[in-house]
Amino acid sequence: MEHRARKRFGQNFLSDPNIIRKIVDAIAPRGGDLVVEIGPGLGALTEPLLERLPRLHVVEIDRDLIARLREQHDPERLVIHEGDALKFDFGSLGERLKVVGNLPYNISTPILFHLSHFATRVREMTFMLQKEVVQRMVAEPGTDDYGRLSVMLQYRFNMARLFDVPPGAFRPAPKVMSSIVRMSPKPAQALDANDEMLLGEIVSAAFGQRRKTLRNTLRAFLDENDFAALGIDPGLRGERLSLAEYVGIANHCALRTSK
Ligand code: SAM
After folding, report:
1. CB count, 10 Å around CB of 13?
2. Contact at 8 Å (CB) between 10 and 106?
3. How far is CA 179 from CA 40, 105, 106, 108, 117, in A?
4. Same topology between domain 7-188 and domain 196-258
5. Closest-lying ligand 1 atom to the alpha carbon of residue 88
């Protein structure tokens, strides 16, 4: 029976064989890899991945799609985790995990933040997302796309936009362009924030009101003396600061409270 795409689960199924091949080549699965696919759907990526892997884990929320996958695949080779990827414990699968998927666009930001928690267990992640989201992920300071998503993901990952995918590659076709992004966790020694929660709070505050200056947005964290000690102009807006400057602010505040 034909599956009717469900909007609430962000279902746009890949149908272009050339694009599918290009994505699987970018994932470059090898025999011993531990791979999990988020949202296998009708299997556009799942099947070519299974051609190259002895075993694949998938996380899917749609029960109709799960029933289809169960009918079509040997459970020894396709391990189906039924449920919400936003609640899934990716750490439970093991170490050096490769996470892949054509992600449901309606939950792209929360899923990226959820996956950041497992960065130390992950070797690499390769995703399709809306082009606009990928531009925000890889954005540089001083640009319109640069924001909380850029700083918080760039803290944990090296990221590269690999190529774009037009709406015509999907059924049904989405309204927007998509891009493939690769995310590689940074080594532990590069994660130099003493208090990552505090870093998150500071970055959220700095970008909460984009038009306001740091003097206003970071009032709860820094006074004029702190800005002077850090060598940061309080008249700037949050979008001007680099990741290293945000980490510098967070470490300055963490040190001050621990004194
Ligand atoms: N991988 C397939 C493809 O490329 O054709 C389907 C991609 S479709 C954009 C997104 C998939 O994620 C759908 O199968 C959808 O049911 C599933 N999905 C949506 N929300 C989910 C969630 N919270 N947890 C797990 N899977 C989800």
Report:
1. 17
2. yes
3. 18, 12, 15, 13, 23
4. no
5. 24
CB contact at 8 A, 10 and 170: no
Domain residues of the chain, as ranges?
Answer: 7-188, 196-258
Structure tokens given for 176: 């927007």
CATH number 3.20.20.140 is the correct assignment for the domain at 196-258: no
C-alpha closest to that of 68 among 77, 80, 57, 56:
80
- Token look-up 């995990």 returns 97
Q: What is the pLDDT of residues 69-126, one digit of tens each?
A: 999 999 999 999 999 999 999 999 999 999 999 999 999 999 999 999 999 999 999 9
41 lines ligand 1 (CB under 6 A): yes
Length of the chain: 259
Give tens-digit pLDDT for 133-162.
Answer: 999 999 999 999 999 999 999 999 999 999
- Determine the 3-state secondary structure of 58 from DSSP: strand
Amino acid at the residue 225? N
Is the CB of 150 inside a 6 Å radius of any atom of ligand 1? no
**CATH label, 7-188, candidates 3.40.50.150, 3.40.50.300, 3.40.50.11810, 3.30.420.40:** 3.40.50.150
**Any idea what the Cα angle at residue 218 is, between residues 212 and 223, rounded to 5°?**
120
Find the 197 Cα to ligand 1 centroid distance in Å.
30
